[in-house]
Amino acid sequence: MKSLRHRLPTLTSLMAFEAAGRTLNFTQAAQELHVSQAAISKQIKYLEGYFGFALFERQGRKVSLSSRGLQFHNKINASFNFMADAVEEYLEDEDNSSVTVSANSAMSHYWLGNAINEFYRTHKKTPNIRVITSDITRDLFVDEVDIAIAYEPGQRIGWKTSFLFKEEMFPIASPDYLKTHPFLGNNPENLFKHELLDFERIEPNWMNWKAWFSELDINTDKLMINHRFNNYIVLIDSAKRGLGITLGTRYLIDSKLKEKQLIRLSDFSVLSGRSYWLALNESKPMNDNTRRFYDWLNHYQAMRE
C-alpha cells in the first residue's frame, strides 16, 4: 500500500477547501486559517488541477460548491471531524477524564449500560465512559482498556481480576407468547413442545439450550431449535416480540423481567459454574476516575444481589 503522502493531495489544500466550502467565502476562510485570500485561491486551484474538475462555481464574487465539489466536501468534512474527535478523545485521556471499559455485547447492552446510566444519575461530577464491545474475550484485554468485564477470562497477565456474579440461566418468554402458548407443569422437558430460540456459540464455554438441558441431565435427542441467532441482543429482542422461549441470564435481563417485557417460566434454572469478572489493567496508572468507576461497578452489583 502506498503511503498517504503519495495517495493524497496536500493537507494544506484540503484544509483550505474545507474552510472555503463551509463558509462559501474565500476571505472568511483565509481569516480562519490565518492566511491570505490569494493563498486560499491558490490551494483551491491546485486541488481542481489535481482532480481535473471544478470544485466551485463562481458568479462574480459569490462562490458555491459544484455538485462534485459538494460530494467531496461532505466526505472531507466528515473525515476532519473524525480526526478532531480522535484527538479530543486522547486529550481527555491525558487529563484522566475518561475511563475505557470493555465487555461482550450482551453485558454492554444490558448490565453495563444500566450501570453507566445509574452512575451518571447518582454522581454529580462524572468522567466520560468509553465502551469497547467484542464477543471475543481476548479483544477485551487490550492496552487502551482500563476496566474489562469478562465472562470466564482465565488468568490474564497484567490484569487484576475480581468476582462479579455467577451465571444463572432460566427460560423466559414474552406475555404475548405465553397467552397463546401457555407453559404447563414444572418439568423442563415440557419445553421441547415449544418454539425455542437459541444463539450461535462464538466461544465454546457459552451456554445454549443443549448445554442447559445437559446440566439438568435431560436427554436432548428431542431438542429442536426453531430459530437461531448470532447475537444475544437480537435473541432477547425476538423473545420480547413473542417469537418463542429462550434462555435469560440473571442480572443481564433483570430489568426486562421487572418491566414485565419478559416472564420467567418457572423456578428451575441452571448455575453453569461460570461467572462474570471485573478486571483492572495494572499496566496503566490508576487514576481517581478509574478507581471511582471500578468501585461503583462493585457497588452497583451489590445493590442487585
From TrEMBL:
Organism: Marinomonas colpomeniae
Similarity field: Belongs to the LysR transcriptional regulatory family.
Domain HTH lysR-type: 9-66
Gene3D superfamilies for this protein: Periplasmic binding protein-like II, Winged helix-like DNA-binding domain superfamily/Winged helix DNA-binding domain
Position of the signal peptide: none
Superkingdom of the organism of origin: Bacteria
Keywords: DNA-binding, Transcription, Transcription regulation
UniProt key word rRNA-binding: no
InterPro entries reported for this sequence: LysR-type_TF_proteobact-type, LysR_HTH_N, LysR_subst-bd, WH-like_DNA-bd_sf, WH_DNA-bd_sf
Name of the protein described by the UniProt record: LysR family transcriptional regulator
